[in-house]
Design brief:
Length: 225
């Protein structure tokens, strides 16, 4: 590929092998038209979308057996699309989203590698409301609380895109922003449960790999207003 190199990985999930085209390593950067720069993606972060991270594997494993029947599902920050492909393999109704300029093409290529139909993709910058996206029964993401501001942005997205009885599932490697996010979700009436020790920490993150499940209890009208 011009500007970067790729490799094909075989990722076992739920008893099935998924073939995934990924970047060869983290020392990659290609932005000939300036799309990444316009999207606010720094060159040092450009290649992060193109790897399968432990948090992403844990989310995909969860999606391989989670109850998804009849649910409309939204994946935030899909990257290479592994979790969305697992859901598509199960016949689920999933919309994959990201804001990296190459995420859509990698997702489409990986769907083809696995003989799956095209997965619906939407470019979704988290800070920009998208009134056409609609609401979902299940919203998922892996390591999406990467920066401090993401807690506020994703909590605001839940207001816009979560159905009243929706569930949010996040795999988090311990970035340190979970507390602020959970407080914001509590204002919307969401309670959180944690399952710890699902995967090893990524980089220098101090916490333990965990699955966070947010479900709404008593909605507080003032917060929703």
């Amino acid at each position: 590929m011009p500007g970067y190199t790729t490799r094909i990985l075989t990722i076992p999930v739920g008893g099935h092998d998924f073939r995934i085209r990924a970047l060869s390593d983290l020392q990659q950067f290609s932005d000939p038209t300036g799309r990444a720069a316009r999207a606010g993606i720094h060159s040092s972060l450009w290649s992060l979308f193109g790897q399968i991270w432990p948090a992403g594997r844990a989310l995909a494993d969860t999606m391989s057996h989670f109850d998804v029947a009849g649910k409309r599902i939204l994946e935030l920050g899909c990257g290479l699309g592994l979790s969305s492909l697992v859901l598509a393999h199960r016949g689920a109704d999933v919309v994959a989203t990201d804001h990296h300029p190459l995420a859509e093409s990698f997702l489409a290529y990986n769907a083809g590698l696995n003989n799956l139909p095209a997965v619906t993709y939407r470019d979704l910058p988290w800070e920009v409301p998208d009134g056409s996206l609609g609401r979902f029964d299940l919203i998922i993401g892996s390591d999406i609380l990467y920066e401090r501001g993401h807690a506020h942005q994703i909590a605001a997205m839940m207001l816009r895109h979560a159905k009243p009885d929706a569930e949010l599932l996040i795999t988090d490697p311990g970035r340190g922003n979970v507390g602020a996010f959970s407080r914001g979700m509590a204002l919307q009436g969401f309670d959180v449960t944690e399952e710890l020790g699902l995967f090893e920490d990524e980089g220098d993150a101090p916490g333990h790999g965990r699955l966070l499940s947010y479900r709404r209890g008593a909605v507080r009208p003032a917060a929703l207003a």
